Amino acid sequence: MARSDKNLQAVVLCDTYLPRFMPLTAHKPRCLLPLANTPLIEYTLEFLVNCGVSEVYLMCCAHASQVSEYIKSSRWVSPFVPFKVQTIELPNTMSVGDAMRDIDSRGIITSDFLLISGDVVCNIDFDRVWAAHVQRKNEDKNCIMSMVLRKASALHRTRSNRTGLFVVDDITKRLVVYQRSILQKDIDVDSSELLKLTNVAFRNDLIDCRIDICSMDVPALFTENFDYEHLRDDFVRGVLTSDLLGKTIYAHIVDDGYAARVESFKTYKGVTKDIVSRYSYPLVVDSNVVQGKSYMYQRGHIYKERDVVLSQSCTIGMSTIIGSKSSVGDSTLVQGSVIGRCCAIGNNAVVENACLWDNVRIEDGAQVRGAILADNVRICKDAVIEPGAVIGFGVTVEAGTTVPQGARIHAKNRRSSSASAKSKSKSESESGSENGDESDGYGYSDSSAVISNSDDDEPSDTEDLAALVDEMYLSDESIVSLDHRKLAATRKPRRKSRTMSTTSNFSAEDAEDDDEEFVKEAITSINRSIVDKHTQDVAILELNTLRMTMNAPHEKVQEAVVIALVSHIGHLITQSDVKSVTTNVFTTWSPLLRRITFDMVGQTNLAAQIENNCAGMLQGERILAFALMTLYDTDVISENAVYAWHKQPEAGSQVRQLVDQWVEWLENAEEESDDE
Amino acid sequence: MSSKGDINTQISLFLTQLKRRQISGAKEVALATANLLIRFISSRRWVSTTAMIEQIRILGAKLVDAQPYELTCGNVIKRVLKNIRTINEAFAPKGNKDTDLEEDLNPSSSMLGLLSVSDSMNTSGDGDSSNNSSMANLTKHKSNEAEPGLTPSGYYVSEEVRAKARDLRNAVIDEIQSLIDEIQNDDPLFKAGIDMITDSDLLLTPCPSSKTMVDFLLKAAAKRNFTVIVTESYPNNVEKAKKMVQQLKNAGVKSTLIPDAAVFAVMAKVSKVVISARAVLANGGCIASSGVAMACHAAKQFTKPVLSIAGSYKLSPIYPFDVESLIEVGNSSKVIDFSDAELMDKLEVINPLYDYISPELIDIVISSDGGASPNFVYRLILDNYSEHDQHLSSVEIGAA
């Protein structure tokens, strides 16, 4: 192998400069988060051992000192490790681009090197990848990068739905187009580029494992283009779209071996499952590669370390890992979960498909399903944690509370983890009582802990949670089937694929093309306002302009607004309950609705529109009911309009059930006041 | 002590290689273990066999824990321990006479010389015979145990004792060297095996992954004229099965590759089933690659003889109380493709790499010493291992 006589260098990007693992990454760097009870970075370094790397540079930004400490005290500094590890702390970098520019300025790279993310789990045969890269370089002098991509499928549990679309020349494997996140519905491809090629593959089924073999030009290119921030979005796209540069990037698609990357909570769970079910063999839990681990395998993918205490009456289901010194109480069910060291699970509790890190306490009768609980979390008696919840370091969930789906809770006091032990004991002493608003309250109750519905701080993060709902995948699938002529023809990129679920609504009526066009445009405009948080005035102005230019009737404006709002709600309810979301959205947008609703007919029409849109939606009846109530409360719709609408024949099948009750109540209230 | 740092590095390296499965296969692991033991023993100065036994046991426990499924690693260590003990037992009664021992040139005698110099030291480990150990020796033992791995500094060890220590070391290394030769030399094994095969035999082998099996069949083909049926061994060894058939074809052996499901169907015509064991256990049962047990059950049904081929380093003093703990589970993606998202979500896959074959299913165990009935394996094991070394570590599998 050409590699053995060469010095292969590896640059590990320990930080992704994205807040996807918040709130957990507030305390710990992402690469030290435990995956199946082993810090993430261990998997990456294990892979590098198999690659035959001789020098490793760890580029750390957030909590860089923690990474350095960890490496210093780990086995990676011992003399039998085949490579030298060097941590480079870059506290001032803001993006991957900065890190790459730093590499360039240090001049440490001497030849083609391996650029890898610090969260990769992989067991592929790297020699073959390297050989292929060398061959490509011989054939194409301009090749500056080979990306390793694992064939999976569009809906794979280990594939992030943020992974882009790769358009690859099927013969040479040259990457032609890289399209960021497929959530954009249309892709923009220069057809002239494609016509030159005989076979083109549009791949939306790949796992981008961020294992790249780069030439020395790559860091230099980052320095030249000082505005490059992201490796894929900026650099790869930049290189591919640039006519002047003339550099090429190749995709190395592997279809055997395991390769995945832990880049979001969704993939975190997916990769954990894969490791437990031994898809990553020999990188499995019971190989105990990290010192001090003592896992033994038992039939049914159960891994137990030494000194585990299990009650005789507890049930340990398939695919479970239990760390040393943990205990499980009477009649408790543990299934499909990862349990760290020193965890205590009480009696009659349920732990399913959850990840518990170290020192977690789950008291009697509590139920934890599909959640991630960080170190030192305490779940008090009979609390219920619903799927997708993430509970940060040292949080206590009060007895009997329910943490809703997809909630992310972290301790308000983020100062230092050393303080947590003290305050934890404090909150313990007052367990049972409402934790109130103490400054160091670690408890979860609506006031004291901070629940971030991540939608507020980072819009793209919602995809993670929405990914729980299968319908989100609709757009992902459909793109696979599009033929490239059609793709090349559609040049008008739409903002968000979230409107996908609603497109079916208006595509049904194909009569008036212009109005159709208007509705589409209007929806896009409103969505933009929602996402970018424009003020109502801006939104109204935009809508009016649109209406004037396209000469659309008022009904169409209403239609567009309602479609946009209802679909927006549809996305939000995956994280929160219907009532609050619906009320919230309609209250916020009531001024706009008032501006586009003029008379009784308009009001009736508005109600009918909402009904049409709610029909067939998940929880549609509830959305409809709460929407009408809110509009009634905010005086957008008058009582009479409600009655008028209610007299109309029912559109959807069962949507009106809840509303009927409310209308009845309205009528009664009316009569009563009349009587008086 | 530079040499000590060196050997520790080598041990750690070997441990991680075992854990990463970079060293795998019964023979390869056995040889690597033996070579490591030579380096380990030559890196230190030993004053007593007790200390040596103790140290090797500690090392052995670590190695066994690192890869509990590779039984040959433990076997080699236990064999070496037995050798050290045997030397002592054989010569301890004569240990009082210094003089003739000095002149004796065989390795064991230099060991004896050591014994005599250290004043009738009780060299046997762990409760082995001899009861005349003096106080001085006890303290000496203690100093060894207190600082494992460190040679007691020379201030109270005479030059003569040091010379004896060298001899002891050399003696043990010679023993290990001959063990390595034995592991490498499969000829006696093959010779015994070929005696069991006759012309015009129709052999079935469900072990295409075994290199020993390929070598054996090629060797036997030179002397006998037979036909071989190889099972596909899905999912773990399909490639190897194809390769094996190819190799046999190239050597002019008539061979056929059949799917595993066809084993029962062809069994009626088969004259002998030949399997290659990864390990032979104390009860005469075997661990072999998965699919073998099925073939053996079919053979039982048709009362066809089953020959198990295993070099004597594969004899293992472990009794299979907990069979599952001896069987490693391999890569699930061999069964369900990783890109099949839907199946992956809905199914849990368990892909065992090995099978346990109980002794009733095996007719003859062929080792380097010739053929033996499975019932007789316990004798072979008694010959090869000391009862004190049955388990090196507390968590060793099968120890339950």
UniProtKB/TrEMBL annotation, chain A:
PROSITE patterns: W2 (PS51363). Coiled coil: none annotated. InterPro entries: ARM-type_fold, eIF-2B_epsilon_N, eIF2B_epsilon, LbH_EIF2B3/5, NTP_transferase_dom, Nucleotide-diphossugar_trans, Trimer_LpxA-like_sf, W2_domain. GO terms for cellular component: cytosol; eukaryotic translation initiation factor 2B complex. Keywords: Cytoplasm, Initiation factor, Protein biosynthesis. Residues 406-461, 488-509 are annotated as: Disordered. The keyword Cytoplasm applies. It comes from the Eukaryota. It comes from Starmerella bacillaris (Yeast). The keyword Protein biosynthesis applies. Belongs to the eIF-2B gamma/epsilon subunits family. Component of the translation initiation factor 2B (eIF2B) complex which is a heterodecamer of two sets of five different subunits: alpha, beta, gamma, delta and epsilon. Subunits alpha, beta and delta comprise a regulatory subcomplex and subunits epsilon and gamma comprise a catalytic subcomplex. Within the complex, the hexameric regulatory complex resides at the center, with the two heterodimeric catalytic subcomplexes bound on opposite sides. One of its GO terms (molecular function) is translation initiation factor activity. The lineage of its organism: Eukaryota, Fungi, Dikarya, Ascomycota, Saccharomycotina. Residues 512-676 form the W2 domain. Pfam families: LbH_EIF2B, NTP_transferase, W2. Residues 488-498 have a biased composition (Basic residues). This is Translation initiation factor eIF2B subunit epsilon. Signal peptide: none annotated.
UniProtKB/TrEMBL annotation, chain B:
It is found in: Cytoplasm, Cytosol. Keywords: Cytoplasm, Initiation factor, Protein biosynthesis. Signal peptide: none annotated. Residues 121-151 are annotated as: Disordered. GO terms for cellular component: cytosol; eukaryotic translation initiation factor 2B complex. It comes from the Eukaryota. Component of the translation initiation factor 2B (eIF2B) complex which is a heterodecamer of two sets of five different subunits: alpha, beta, gamma, delta and epsilon. Subunits alpha, beta and delta comprise a regulatory subcomplex and subunits epsilon and gamma comprise a catalytic subcomplex. Within the complex, the hexameric regulatory complex resides at the center, with the two heterodimeric catalytic subcomplexes bound on opposite sides. Belongs to the eIF-2B alpha/beta/delta subunits family. This is Translation initiation factor eIF2B subunit beta. It comes from Starmerella bacillaris (Yeast). The lineage of its organism: Eukaryota, Fungi, Dikarya, Ascomycota, Saccharomycotina.
